[in-house]
Amino acid sequence: MRIQVRRTGGFAGIERHAEVDTSERDDAGEVHALAEQAVADGRDTPPIGVPDGFSYQLTVDGRTVYCSDPRLTDAQRQLISLVLKEGS
Asked: Could you tell me the superkingdom of the organism this chain comes from (predicted)?
């Protein structure tokens, strides 16, 4: 499974992008479940965010959804954190 996260917005407006491929991960099953929940909780169009908040584009195996602070679900927050920390 290929998971991509694109973060935009924030005070400085700096965009960040990262990607993770779960094919060789020991915890792939857990990450897949997390990604599926995060996508299920996402929106098909970008939501209206808050000033200086972050907006996210999550793409999991070609399906893209959108979410933003401060209304991230736990699954979205965990997935974003994992991908932005470990992605290249």
From this structure: Bacteria
Residues in the chain: 88
Q: Which residue has the tokens 């793409």?
A: 59
The closest alpha carbon to 53, from 3, 10, 7, 4, belongs to: 10
Single pTM value for the model? 0.91
What average pLDDT is seen over the chain?
94
DSSP secondary structure of the chain:
-EEEEEEEESSS---EEEEEEGGG-TTHHHHHHHHHHHHHTSBSSPPP--TT-EEEEEEETTEEEEEETT---HHHHHHHHHHHHH--
